[in-house]
Amino acid sequence: MSHxxxxxxxxxxxxxxxxxxxxxxxxxxxxxxxxxxxVDADTVRSYPHERIINFGLEANLGGGYLRxxxxxxxxxxxxxxxxGAFGRVNITHKVAFQINALYDINNYKIEGGKLNRxxxxxxxxxxxxxxxxxxxxxxxxxxxGVYYRRNFSLRxxxxxxxxxxxxxxxxxxFTFGVFIEDSGFRIGYSTFRALTDANRVGDSxxxxxxxxxxxxVF
Length: 218
Hints:
Elements: H1 3-21, H2 41-44, E1 53-68, E2 73-74, E3 78-90, E4 95-110, E5 113-129, E6 139-156, E7 170-182, E8 185-194, E9 206-217
Antiparallel strand pairs: 1-2, 1-3, 1-9, 3-4, 4-5, 5-6, 6-7, 7-8, 8-9
């Protein structure tokens, strides 16, 4: 290769990236990655809440019971669990809107046996965050909203026959809780409280579920 060709090649390799990236391009210090210099992780790191939309996975473990609004009594607690995915829209760095889709197994103690419901639960919540400037990824928060639950499998240990005529397939209620989010991981506590009756006949009873929550936000 001639000396003249080497000069042309050098100018091409120098100016072509400059035309593409403009002022963001530096030959030896692009995003602080010049030879021998350490990479500044805070410069290139992106926190989940800095994106407009997040997706995530969530699991809930806890217990549930039926309360009787007319008599202020409740049944004994039984093991409940739920898991699924969610989508979150970050309105600001302190306010977000989230919708979950959970496969929900909720069990309740009833007289002489157990009521088992397998459901799809769809909570829609508003989330409020608190964060410090020196630790923007550590964010405690609270949330609240409403949910809809569709019971597609109902089993009463006292009744071997189909029981759809005795218990409701649809449920509506409200949910709220607290959590801490850090580096994409979230742990917290949530409660689901029905506003509609679990049963179609007999005394009015409404479902309550309390969960410990763990999630990961992408």
